[in-house]
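User: Predict Radical SAM protein's structure from this.
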Amino acid sequence: MIDNTENSQRKNKIEDTEQSACTLCPRDCKKNRADGEIGVCGETAAMRIGRAALHMWEEPCISGEKGSGAVFFTGCPLHCVYCQNYAISDGGTGRQITVEALVQIFRDLEAQGAANINLVTADHFIPQVAQAIRQAKEQGFSLPFIYNTSSYVRVEALRMLEGLVDVYLPDMKYMDADTAERYSHAPDYPVVAKAAIAEMVRQCGEVVLDAEDAYIRRGVIVRHMLLPKHLLEAEKIIRYLYETYGNRIYISMMSQYTPVGDIGVRFPELADKVRRKSYRKLLDYAVNLGVEQAFYQEGEVAKESFIPEFYKE
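Assistant:
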C-alpha cells in the first residue's frame, strides 16, 4: 500500500516532468512546454480552452435537463483524421486561461445550473486541471467532475487525478493497431486505452446514479463511435469491454460520425455517415452479448449542427 507521502511524491515527480520534458501522453515528445515549446499536442504548458458552456448533447445521466458544464480544452495528442472538433484540436482556436480562471469558470457554470463539470480533452493539461479541481474542492465546490478523454494517456498521468475526478468518460476508439495507425498515427492506441480505462475503473469503481434525479455521481462510461465500414471492429470493442468489466461500467454506442472537410477524399471509406442498418447491428450484437448498462443514439445525430461553436481567439 502506498501512503499519502508517497502519493504526493509521485504526483510531484510527474508534475516536474511536465515542466521540463513532457511525457503525459504516449507520444513521449519530451518538449519543454513550460518554457514555451510546443508539444505533439500542439500546445505549450499555457492552458487554453475553446469553449465553456452548458452542453445538452451528452448521455442522459450527464446532461439531463440541466445540461453539463462542458469545458473544451484546445490541442490534442491523438490528432484523429476525422476529428469533429478540429477547430480546437488542431486549428489553433481558443483562449488562454490560468488555473484561477478555470476555477472561476467552474463556479460560473454552477451558477448557470450545470449538473456537473465536464472536462473535455484535457490530457495534455492534467497538472493544471488537477490543481484547479483541488482548489475548487478546497473552496467547497461540490458538483461532480467528469473527465472526458480519448484514453490516449499514460496511467501515471491519470493517477494525478485520483480522488479528484468523480466520473470518467473515456473513448475506446480502436481495437486493431492497423486502424489506430491509419486514422490516428497511434498503433499503440489499443494497448494504451485498455490500460487507461482499467485505471479509471480502479479509481471510480461501479457506476452510481443519484436516486432522485438519475444524474451520474461516480463511475465510468466508455464511449465508442462507430465508424463507416468498421462494424466488426466495433463489435470487438463491445465484446472486450463487456467481457472485461461486465455491467460495472456503462457502454455508450454512438452513431454520430460526421464527414467533415475533405475526409472523403483522403479516406474514401470515411466519406459517408454510418448506415442505420450497421448501427442497428451493433446494438443487436451488444444486447445478444448480454450488455445491460448502455446508451444508444436515436434519430439524426450525424450532422455538423451538433458540433459546437468555439472561441475564435
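DSSP finds ten helices and ten strands in the chain.
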